[in-house]
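Example S7 (structure tokens).
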């Protein structure tokens, strides 16, 4: 490990007594940088905070967005009883790209209203709106009653413009970083295989389609049958990725459940996250996967492709449309164009 790498490890808040021992202990998993794990800062994000108070123009921007989502959903503003900020930007472990997570609670919301609000929240998040003058994009969430009560991490009340629970500094042992990264890599390898499979099926489907347009003097029916098999493969690939997305989301949700005891849930027995669930092993794994781009890609596949196909019941008959949506999500246009 070079000196820059050791400086990073030290700067991240990990206490190291012996440089030689640190090099030996950490060399097997070094390679982590700030784009993956958040290092401790001296102060809260100065782009959005002023002396531990949220800047007024940011409060106004966030509340304007929330009010618009309510209006578009047909919800009266007086039913919004809570609007909180949570997440990395309320801690000393943010980056300049950390999301600003705004959570809202609506009194007596019905299932039909929730479906409409969820749709409008998703459509807003898909647009990737940044807080003015920053690189921090805004993520909206609709809370339920259980989430409203939780106090597992810092929380700021947007309506009252005050802290519900202020941030604290966390002493993060090196073992937690190591565990989170190693487990995340296991998830990542599995997701790479799944994404690779859906890419290969799309390429093979497109090659078969082109051959059906150009071929002469061969059994076209056989090619048609093969193409249908590829469509079935694509459906299986998509189903598998949606299941993986749901499992990853459930893992993160578990990290914030009241009855989850972090030190008793893993082989590592590292009591980090008991005061702030953002630093549990489960949530750190989720955040690393999110930094690598897996979480957003899975979410877009689920909402932009899978859910629409389920709703329209036309995946087979409209396969070219859905393939284009998948390609858009996976962003590998060049590779396909070269095929």
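Recovered sequence:
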């Amino acid at each position: 490990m070079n000196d820059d790498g050791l400086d990073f490890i030290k700067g991240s808040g990990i206490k190291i007594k012996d440089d030689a021992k640190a090099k030996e202990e950490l060399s097997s998993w070094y390679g982590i940088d700030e784009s993956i794990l958040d290092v401790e800062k001296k102060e809260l994000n100065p782009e959005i905070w002023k002396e531990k108070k949220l800047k007024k123009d940011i409060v106004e921007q966030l509340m304007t967005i929330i009010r618009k989502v309510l209006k578009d959903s047909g919800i009266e503003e007086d039913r919004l009883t809570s609007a909180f900020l949570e997440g990395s930007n309320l801690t000393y472990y943010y980056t300049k790209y950390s999301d600003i997570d705004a959570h809202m609670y609506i009194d007596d919301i019905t299932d039909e209203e929730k479906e409409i609000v969820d749709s409008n929240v998703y459509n807003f998040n898909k647009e990737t709106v940044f807080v003015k003058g920053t690189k921090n994009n805004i993520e909206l969430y609709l809370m339920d009653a259980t989430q409203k009560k939780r106090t597992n991490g810092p929380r700021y009340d947007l309506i009252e413009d005050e802290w519900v629970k202020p941030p604290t500094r966390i002493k993060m042992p090196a073992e937690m970083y190591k565990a989170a990264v190693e487990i995340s890599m296991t998830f990542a390898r599995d997701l790479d295989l799944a994404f690779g499979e859906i890419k290969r099926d799309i390429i093979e489907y497109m090659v078969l389609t082109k051959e059906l347009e150009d071929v002469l003097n061969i059994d076209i029916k056989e090619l048609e049958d093969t193409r249908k098999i590829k469509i079935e493969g694509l459906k299986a690939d998509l189903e598998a990725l949606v299941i993986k997305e749901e499992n990853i989301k459930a893992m993160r949700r578990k990290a914030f459940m009241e009855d989850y005891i972090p030190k008793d849930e893993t082989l590592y027995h590292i009591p980090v996250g008991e005061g702030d669930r953002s630093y549990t092993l489960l949530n750190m794994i989720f955040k690393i996967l999110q930094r690598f781009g897996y979480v957003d890609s899975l979410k877009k596949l689920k909402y932009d492709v899978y859910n629409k196909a389920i709703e329209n019941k036309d995946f087979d008959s409209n396969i070219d449309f859905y393939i284009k949506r998948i390609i858009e999500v996976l962003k590998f246009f060049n590779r396909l164009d070269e095929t």
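Notes on this example. Residues 49-165 form a domain with the Beta Polymerase; domain 2 fold (CATH 3.30.460).
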